[in-house]
Amino acid sequence: MIGENYLQLKVVLEHTYPKVVEDKPAMTSQSMFSSLGGTLNLWLGLNVMFAIEIIELVANLIRDRYFLHATRKRVTEVAEVAEAAETAETAPA
C-alpha cells in the first residue's frame, strides 16, 4: 500500500549559482535633502509673496479711505467757497 501511494519528485534548477538580493535606497541622503530644500524654498517664497500682497492690500485700503475722505472734504470746501463767491456777486451793493 505504501508503494502505491508513494510519489517521487525531482527538482532540477536551471542555474546552479545562488540568487543574491540586494536592497538599494531609492534616494540618497543628498538627493533627499536637495528635494526637501527645494520644497521649503518654494513654500517660503509663496508665503513671503502672500504676506506682501496682504500688506499691500491693507495699505491700499487705508490710503483709499484717507484720501477719499480728504478729497470729499476739499470738494465740499471748494463748493462752499464758490457758493459764497456767487452769492457775493449777485448781492445788491
- Write down the Rg: 44 Å
Beta strand %: under 5%
Order of helices and strands: H
Poorly predicted runs of 5 or more residues: none
- The chain-level structural class is mainly alpha
User: What is the number of helical segments per DSSP (H or I, 4+ residues)?
Assistant: 1
Tell me how many strands there are. 0
What general form does the structure show? rod-shaped
Q: What's the N-to-C terminus distance?
A: 149 Å
Rounded mean pLDDT score: 82
Concise structural overview:
The chain is an all-alpha fold and 93 residues long. It has 1 helix and no strands.
Secondary-structure topology with pairs:
Elements: H1 29-90
Protein traits:
93 residues, mainly alpha, 1 helix, 0% strand, rod-shaped
How does this structure look, described?
There is one protein chain. With 93 residues, the chain is an all-alpha fold. It is built from 1 helix and no strands. The model has no long low-confidence stretch (mean pLDDT 82).
